[in-house]
Amino acid sequence: MPVDPKAPVRISALNWVPVFAQGHVRDLRPRWALEEAGIPYAVRKLDVMAERPADYYEEQPFGQVPSYHDDTVSLFESGAIVLHIGRDCETLLPRDLAARARATTWLIAALNTVEPFLMQLATIDVFAAGEEWARLRRPGVIEMIDKRLARLSDALREKSYLDGERFTAGDLMMTTVLRSIDGKGLLDRYSNLVAYKARCQARPAFQAALAAQIADFEERESVRA
Fold first, then answer.
1. Which CATH architecture has domain 97-203?
2. Alpha carbon 51 to chain centroid distance?
């Protein structure tokens, strides 16, 4: 669904980030979920270079993105938002209770079991680049990431998605997490994970969500130019 400034659903996003982060900011997650659910949404764009408006901390106590607001609820944290969007979207959270539980489990696993290790690498390579402690720590972080990827690969086996042949919110979240190590070559030894990630990213809803996020950045850059 296209972004609609008049839509009752609204998420927050940043109006610019450096090139390496474009397409990876976490508002991509609710954007993708909303596209899968066919729900139009508005965007509250925050100036990345300015202090957050005081009222924004009522939506997101830590000042981060994304936040989410509709006619009923206001919430934050991308996992919580995706689960909320999925409550009435069978594509994201199947009606069958066992399948819904598995989708929820994989979503939480992506955030709690896989992402923390991958984000350690981002800290080392981006925010601590050139520091001695980061150079010494990096091999250990790579080893931990590989162990997580190996377990994920074993769980996926030859299935199309984490729960079989059906895409769910668990796949949405896991794919966005795996994208954080794009360009590192760490997935390359796991052909099933490479194919899985490509399969999820080929979904029209993902492509629409990614394009919408990038468009917001491009708009800021054209204004600045």
1. Up-down Bundle (1.20)
2. 24
